[in-house]
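Hi there,

I know you've been waiting on this one. I reran it after we fixed the sequence typo, so this is the corrected version. Both the input and the resulting structure follow.
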Amino acid sequence: MRFVRGGVGGTTLVQWAATGSSMRADLVRAIVAAGGVDILLLQVGRNDVADRLVGDLATQLALIRTLIAALRRETGLPDLTVFIGGSQNVLTGDPAQQRMQGTQRQAEMTVALGDAHVRYGFATYDLPVFDGTHQTEQGQIRAGQRFAAQVLAWLQGRAGPRGPRLVSARAVGTSQTEVTLALTDGVDITPASNILGFQVTDNGQAVPLTGAVRTGRTTILLSHGAIGQTARGVAYGLTTAPDDQNGVHDTSADRLPMEPSLGIVMAAG
C-alpha cells in the first residue's frame, strides 16, 4: 500500500475548493505522478469553523462537492472514492461558532451519505487533544484504526462499520423526549447516564438539557426545559461537543462514537 501525502496544515475548505487553488494543484500533481490513487481521504473544514468562514448548509455542501468534483476532474479519476473525515471540535463556547460547527458536520454527513463514491470515514469529536486542537498520539492511533476499518470494508466490497445514529424522537410530556438510535447488531450503547452531546430545540431554539439516561439498548431519555405544543426537535453532535467519556459510543471492540445527526430530527407526539 502506498500513500500520497497532500495535506497542508492550517488550511480551509474555502481555500481548497477555490478556483485555481495552488494546494489542490500540488495534490493533483502528486496523485498523477504516483500513477493515480484508489481512494482519497478528505478531512478539511475544522479551520473554517475556527476562522468563522462557514456559511449556511447549502454553501458548505457546495464547497465540499465542488472540491470533490474538481479533484476527480483534475486527476482524471471520475469515479474516485472519497472518504470524509469528520471535523474536530472547536471549543470556544461561542454559540455562533458552535452553530457553524454543526453546519459543517451536517454538510460532511450529507455528502458522505448521498454520493455512491463517497463514504463517511470516521468521527473525531471524541478523540483526545493536547492543545485544544491537535490530537494526542493516542487520538491519532484511534483515528487511524477507524479509517483502516473503513478502507478494509471498502476493499472487501461491503459497507463500513458505523456507530450509533439518531433515527427518531418522541415527546414524553412537556419536559422529556425519548430518542431511538440505529445500532449494529450485537452491540449496546454507553454510558448509562450523564450522557452529553444531544440538543433539544423548541421551534429551532435550544432548550436547556438537564439530563440524559439510557433506557434501553437503542433508547435514551432526555430531560429538558418545558416545551408546549410546538415543533420539538433533537440533534446530536452538531452544536455540542461530546467527549470520549460522556458521548454516546457502542460497545464494539472499536468503541465507535455516535455519528453527528443529519440536522434536527423532529419529535413525534
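Quick highlight: Helices lie at 13-17, 22-33, 46-50, 57-75, 95-112, 137-155.

Best,
R. S.
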